[in-house]
Design the sequence.
């Protein structure tokens, strides 16, 4: 059983896209079952807001109808999650707010602060609504999150790859992921060399000693960056290793007073072979 995980938030935003298939709810419920944790499912819908001064009665009616449709879809997701949780014997709270984008972002980040971790679907498009929610939870909740790629509906953590560059962000992720590392059969600390200077950072061997004092045995590996691409190096290595989970610290840069995720983080959010555990 996973230790010290008692409260999990799963979030899905309904945008009415018939091609969009969520894995986060099933994966999150599977994780909660193994942790014997309470789960909160937020099945939100994005409310269409139209300025009254520029909207005809017909357009307003169409917007209202679409909001009702999206709200009904979100309610259905919440009810299905509640029933699935009940079948698994889980304690579950559901909510299905319909909010404008800014309020949706603010609400989810705030809710995440009172949970041990948040589970969200992967979103490859950098400008999509769900990517904005991922970035908000990551940078503004103070809590870790797990990003679930399509098709991953069952939680597993037998084999964990930790992206280790010796930075403060990597140390934060390593600490936040301790419950998962304790449950793992295999833990590997992977440092990718050649992309940046790691001379002033903490070596992976020192991190392995720290984990050993927590009763966790970890292997240490050093890999050359494939054509200078850290994300692709991690992606290929995790695939070959059959990783169930990739743990890494997320980086962000300030640009025009906005937080913009770093290139490695962005690349893995776009395409990752396993669920991605992120801390900021």
Sequence:
């Amino acid at each position: 059983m996973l230790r010290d995980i008692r409260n999990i938030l799963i979030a899905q935003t309904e945008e009415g896209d018939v091609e969009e298939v969520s894995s986060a709810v099933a994966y999150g419920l599977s994780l909660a079952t193994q942790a014997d944790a309470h789960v909160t499912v937020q099945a939100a819908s994005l409310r269409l807001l139209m300025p009254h001064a520029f909207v005809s009665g017909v357009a307003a009616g169409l917007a209202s109808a679409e909001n009702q449709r999206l709200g009904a879809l979100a309610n259905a997701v919440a009810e299905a999650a509640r029933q699935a949780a009940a079948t698994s014997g889980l304690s579950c709270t559901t909510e299905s707010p319909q909010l404008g984008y800014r309020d949706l972002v603010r609400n989810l980040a705030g809710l995440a602060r009172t949970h041990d971790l948040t589970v969200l679907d992967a979103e490859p498009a950098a400008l999509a609504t769900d990517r904005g929610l991922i970035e908000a939870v990551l940078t503004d909740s103070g809590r870790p999150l797990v990003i679930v790629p399509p098709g991953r509906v069952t939680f597993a953590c037998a084999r964990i790859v930790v992206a280790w560059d010796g930075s403060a962000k990597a140390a934060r992720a390593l600490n936040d992921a301790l419950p998962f590392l304790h449950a793992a059969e295999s833990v590997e600390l992977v440092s990718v060399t050649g992309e940046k200077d790691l001379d002033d950072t903490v070596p992976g061997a020192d991190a392995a000693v720290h984990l050993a004092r927590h009763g966790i045995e970890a292997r240490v590996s050093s890999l050359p960056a494939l054509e200078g691409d850290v994300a692709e190096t991690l992606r290929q290595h995790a695939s070959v290793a059959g990783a169930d989970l990739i743990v890494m610290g997320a980086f962000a840069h300030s640009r025009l007073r906005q937080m913009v995720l770093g290139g490695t983080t962005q690349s893995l959010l776009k395409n990752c072979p396993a669920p991605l555990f992120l801390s900021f």
About this structure: The radius of gyration is 20 Å. The first helix runs from residue 24 to 35. The mean pLDDT is 90.
